[in-house]
Specification:
The protein is of the alpha/beta class. Helices cover 21% and strands 26% of the residues. It comes from Arcicella rosea.
Length: 631
């Protein structure tokens, strides 16, 4: 008997020890979920359940393409997790209020209770249909970032829970019928499409009285199904609801009065519903309810990222509000980097540097300040340089992308290069794009792909061959040029603005001292201890906090069989070549043509100045004649 008791206590001790230390056995590294068994788990919830609570560092759960019919919860004890899908990763369920004893708040497909959660490239849907309240996303975690996701449902698609929760939606698509964005959280929506599937209400905020900002929509587009014509911007679920639309495009389905009181006249005194410089048929303010507001220039300045998300966040989200003033998202265009400042800097280390004279050419026609798109109400402009000699056949085209660390610079940077290339028979376009003072990655990519599609849409006007288009860029523009080449027609990087029926594919790429990898050992980006590198400003988050994002933004991450021929022109600054040799090895594997020309003892900005300018023109024109002009 004593022996049995002895074994019993030993087993009990071991079991207790195991249970008390079981959290130490939990996973704290990146995971892959795949329905076909090729990952670490087949089910999303299994992967989440396996993760260690209160993670010290962010991990990523990558979900491979497929439809995952699961009801998923990220508990409040989990934080610092990025859940990233592929192009067609769907999380789907069909619960709804009234199904058994279920209520609205139980009907979710995905419920996020943890803080510092990132969702990216996911489709989250509730397929219950028009049966009443049926939530796709229930999110009450604080400091959550949602990028490039689609939320599909009907009534109550997104429940923004948590009185003190703050959530940032970027480049998302959200659809529904009635009150399809509702709840008490503070939410900032940027560059999102908000689609009404039936007459009803877009928002139903229940902002607590003590909260300064409720829902803020900036640069969003409100669309509707063809038969929808009576939609309100919002109605107050609770008395102190706050909702603001800034620089948004409002479709004709938005009613002239704009806002509703939910049948309670006293809500006119407590709610705050406001707009600022919206556009579209639904943006006319003459018939708006008198108790709504039109923001002044000074008032709209209150709605910065920093102010909306003021607080003390954890490091995983510091890019969005704790460091936002440090990152300098001012909403203003920074043109402090220009050819003259670059000349002064280059002259210090390379006394032979001289300025290339700016002069027009009789053989080149120039057209300036043509609008190809918009950022809110700001027009995005480009200039066109083309041969004056008429051609019976369409000419090859070149998009020339300026540098400046994704943060500064100006489309005028390469005017002289555009003139020389036009003189040689190419039609050149010099577009501007969103700098990191205006919007974070990948907004610049969206803009430039929109410009490229615009070029194809206007091919006849400018006599260009839509099947012979190249991108050329210097420094940050070189990285963007290469990135456009390797991500052509990838829906994750197309954006939603302008001429979407046209292709973003290019037939050749010129990369002048533009990095190919932000995470390569040779790259200097993001290795500074203070987190003030140009790329950190652009991504809005230090490399150590989200290395996956830095990798995704690298052209080297995407190079493959569909990459076009590419020319590399490099200075003697080694870190600007990061990833180039690895990139070329992949090109060689697919028999894709590439060239490299390195200018010995040349500064980073060599292509802007003599004695390197004319050799640059020579290398570029010869490469493009090989790859564009000759089939």
């Amino acid at each position: 008997m004593k022996t049995k008791q002895k074994y019993f206590f030993i087993i009990a001790f071991l079991l207790t020890s195991f249970l008390s230390n079981s959290q130490a056995l939990k996973i704290q590294h990146d995971l892959v979920v795949a329905k076909d068994g090729s990952g670490d788990f087949r089910y999303i919830q299994d992967a989440i359940d396996a993760v260690r609570v209160y993670l010290p560092n962010q991990i990523t759960i990558r979900i491979k393409k497929g439809i995952y019919k699961e009801k998923v919860t990220i508990p409040s004890t989990l934080s610092n997790i990025a859940i990233i899908g592929e192009d067609s990763t769907v999380i789907s369920y069909d619960d709804y209020s009234g199904k058994g004893k279920m209520e609205t708040f139980d009907s979710y497909t995905l419920r996020v209770l943890g803080n510092d959660i990132t969702l990216e490239n996911l489709i989250i849907e509730n397929t219950a249909g028009r049966v009443g309240q049926a939530v796709a996303l229930h999110i009450e975690g604080d400091r959550c970032v949602i990028r490039k996701c689609r939320f599909l449902g009907n009534q109550d698609t997104i429940f923004a829970a948590g009185d003190n929760a703050r959530q940032h939606f970027v480049d998302c698509y959200i659809e529904g019928t009635v009150d399809f964005i509702f709840g008490p959280a503070t939410m900032l929506f940027e560059n999102c499409i908000i689609h009404s599937k039936a007459n009803g209400y877009v928002t139903a905020a229940s902002t607590p009285k003590w909260v300064n900002h409720g829902y803020v929509f900036k640069n969003c587009k409100l669309t509707a199904s063809a038969d929808v014509n009576k939609v309100y911007l919002g109605r107050p679920w609770r008395s102190y609801a706050k909702t603001v639309f800034i620089n948004c495009e409002l479709g004709k389905h938005i009613l002239p009065e704009g806002w509703d009181t939910w049948g309670k006249a006293e809500n006119e005194k407590t709610t705050f519903y406001a707009e600022y410089k919206n556009t579209g048929d639904g943006a006319r303010t003459s018939s708006r309810v008198k108790w709504s507001h039109q923001l002044s220039e000074s008032e709209v300045n209150e709605y910065t990222l920093e102010n909306v998300f003021s607080g003390k966040p954890n490091s995983a989200f510091n890019a969005f509000w704790n460091q936002v003033s440090h990152l300098g998202i001012t909403g203003k265009v920074d043109t402090s980097y220009n050819n003259y400042t670059a000349y002064l800097n280059s002259k210090k280390s390379h006394p032979v540097t001289t300025i290339v004279p700016e002069k027009t050419l009789a053989t080149v026609s120039e057209k300036y300040a043509i609008t190809y798109g918009k950022i809110g109400n700001r027009a995005l402009l480009l200039d066109v340089f083309s041969p004056t000699k008429t051609s019976q056949k369409p000419l090859p085209a070149v998009m020339i992308i300026h540098g400046g660390g994704w943060r500064t610079g100006n489309r005028t940077q390469h005017y002289q290069l555009a003139r020389r290339m036009a003189e040689l028979g190419f039609v050149c376009f010099t577009p501007e794009y969103s700098l990191s003072t205006e919007a974070l990655y990948p907004a610049a990519v969206y803009d430039l792909k929109s410009a490229l599609r615009w070029m194809r849409a206007n091919a006849k006007t400018y006599n260009i061959d839509p099947d012979k288009i190249a991108t050329l860029g210097f420094s940050a523009g070189g990285e963007l040029s290469a990135f456009m080449g390797v991500t052509a027609e990838n829906p994750s990087f197309e954006g939603s603005n302008g001429n979407l029926k046209y292709s973003s594919k290019v037939q050749a790429v010129v990369d002048i001292d533009g990095t190919l990898s932000f995470v390569h050992p040779e790259s200097g980006e993001g290795n500074d201890s203070k987190g003030t590198s140009a790329a950190t400003y652009w991504f809005g988050i230090p490399k150590k906090d989200n290395p996956q994002l830095w990798d995704e933004a690298s052209p080297l991450y995407h190079v493959g069989a569909k990459t076009p021929p590419i020319l590399f022109l490099n200075s003697s600054v080694d870190r600007m070549h990061a990833g180039r040799d690895d990139f070329r090895k992949i090109l060689d594997q697919h028999n894709i043509y590439s060239e490299v020309h390195t200018f010995a003892d040349a500064p980073h900005s060599f292509c802007l100045f003599n004695p390197w300018f004319e050799p640059t023109v020579k290398y570029v024109s010869e490469f493009l004649k090989k790859t564009l002009v000759v089939k």
